């Protein structure tokens, strides 16, 4: 929810529920310290909702200093008790902390429940082979679902994936889309923080995907061959690695993107036509590490292409 911070209300025994509810009421009135005082004893006793709320407080610095390690610890305690919001938040936080193998099982459970942020991040991992084994059909299915949920960058990432999928991978991915549900309605135990609270929504902090792509499998189709032509004759760069920055139906849009990011990315531009689109690629990187650095510097969704 944009501009809001999700907090959980306990729906267990009445005494504990009253305490968590009191903390939530204090939170919604901007009384952060009083909210923390209500939740901390319950969190220590093992109450999952109080643990989740305390983790949120540490993550966004409400009533306590920002402490991501404390936030991760409390998210994990709640997540390991099956708290769904905590599972979502913990997996995302692990991904953002570059602890992707640890994030995988939590993101996987969240994605299977229909959480679009988890679907986008998990698709990135599976496509890149980053923290998980490469699985192109599943990555395509998850990114499709995230795109249908209007996740930022998902549609562009999906378009870039198309260039590297075999027809069989794409067909299998489309079949898998139906195995991942859309996100169900928000549970009754979720409440919004005060509108004056400056903490951003979780989705606003998700990295674009794929930011650092592993080399795609060579596809036997003519389109895949067109996606990796030799560098332009005028190029002074000699490295064989490339970074694809986007795929556009209008060549002018590719030119505009290069003017925007070319100085940050480096290398030389190549405009590769095929399949009704023009793919903008930065060329001339000596190895995968250099291409990945360029991809990270671009500030847009991009894919590293092996020679």
TrEMBL record:
<feature type="domain" description="SPOR">
    <location>
        <begin position="235"/>
        <end position="307"/>
    </location>
</feature>
<dbReference type="InterPro" id="IPR052748">
    <property type="entry name" value="ISR_Activator"/>
</dbReference>
<feature type="compositionally biased region" description="Low complexity">
    <location>
        <begin position="196"/>
        <end position="212"/>
    </location>
</feature>
<dbReference type="InterPro" id="IPR011990">
    <property type="entry name" value="TPR-like_helical_dom_sf"/>
</dbReference>
<dbReference type="GO" id="GO:0042834">
    <property type="term" value="F:peptidoglycan binding"/>
</dbReference>
<feature type="signal peptide">
    <location>
        <begin position="1"/>
        <end position="18"/>
    </location>
</feature>
<feature type="region of interest" description="Disordered">
    <location>
        <begin position="196"/>
        <end position="242"/>
    </location>
</feature>
<dbReference type="InterPro" id="IPR006597">
    <property type="entry name" value="Sel1-like"/>
</dbReference>
<dbReference type="InterPro" id="IPR036680">
    <property type="entry name" value="SPOR-like_sf"/>
</dbReference>
<dbReference type="Pfam" id="PF08238">
    <property type="entry name" value="Sel1"/>
</dbReference>
<protein>
    <submittedName>
        <fullName>Sel1 repeat-containing protein</fullName>
    </submittedName>
</protein>
<keyword id="KW-0732">Signal</keyword>
<dbReference type="InterPro" id="IPR007730">
    <property type="entry name" value="SPOR-like_dom"/>
</dbReference>
<dbReference type="Pfam" id="PF05036">
    <property type="entry name" value="SPOR"/>
</dbReference>
């Amino acid at each position: 929810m944009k501009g809001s911070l999700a907090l959980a209300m306990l729906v267990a025994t009445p005494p504990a529920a009253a305490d968590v509810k009191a903390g939530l009421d204090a939170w919604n009135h901007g009384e952060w310290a009083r909210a923390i005082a209500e939740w901390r004893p319950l969190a220590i006793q093992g109450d999952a909702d109080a643990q989740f709320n305390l983790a949120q407080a540490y993550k966004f610095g409400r009533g306590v200093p920002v402490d991501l390690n404390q936030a991760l610890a409390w998210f994990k305690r709640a997540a390991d008790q099956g708290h769904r919001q905590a599972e979502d938040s913990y997996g995302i936080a692990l991904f953002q902390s570059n602890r992707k193998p640890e994030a995988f099982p939590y993101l996987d459970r969240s994605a299977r429940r229909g959480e679009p942020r988890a679907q986008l991040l998990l698709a990135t991992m599976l496509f890149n082979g980053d923290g998980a084994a490469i699985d192109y059909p599943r990555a395509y299915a998850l990114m499709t679902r995230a795109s249908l949920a209007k996740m930022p960058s998902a549609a562009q990432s999906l378009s870039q994936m198309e260039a590297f999928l075999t027809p069989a991978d794409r067909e299998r991915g489309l079949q898998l889309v139906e195995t991942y549900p859309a996100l169900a309605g928000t549970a009754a135990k979720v409440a919004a923080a005060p509108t004056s609270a400056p903490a951003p929504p979780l989705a606003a902090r998700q990295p674009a995907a794929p930011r650092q792509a592993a080399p795609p499998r060579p596809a036997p189709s003519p389109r895949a061959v067109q996606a990796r032509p030799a560098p332009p004759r005028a190029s002074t760069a000699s490295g064989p690695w490339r970074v694809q920055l986007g795929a556009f139906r209008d060549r002018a849009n590719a030119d505009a993107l290069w003017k925007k990011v070319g100085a940050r990315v480096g290398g030389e531009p190549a405009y590769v036509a095929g399949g009704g689109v023009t793919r903008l690629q930065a060329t001339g990187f000596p190895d995968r590490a250099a291409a990945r650095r360029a991809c990270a510097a671009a500030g847009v969704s991009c894919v590293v292409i092996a020679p």
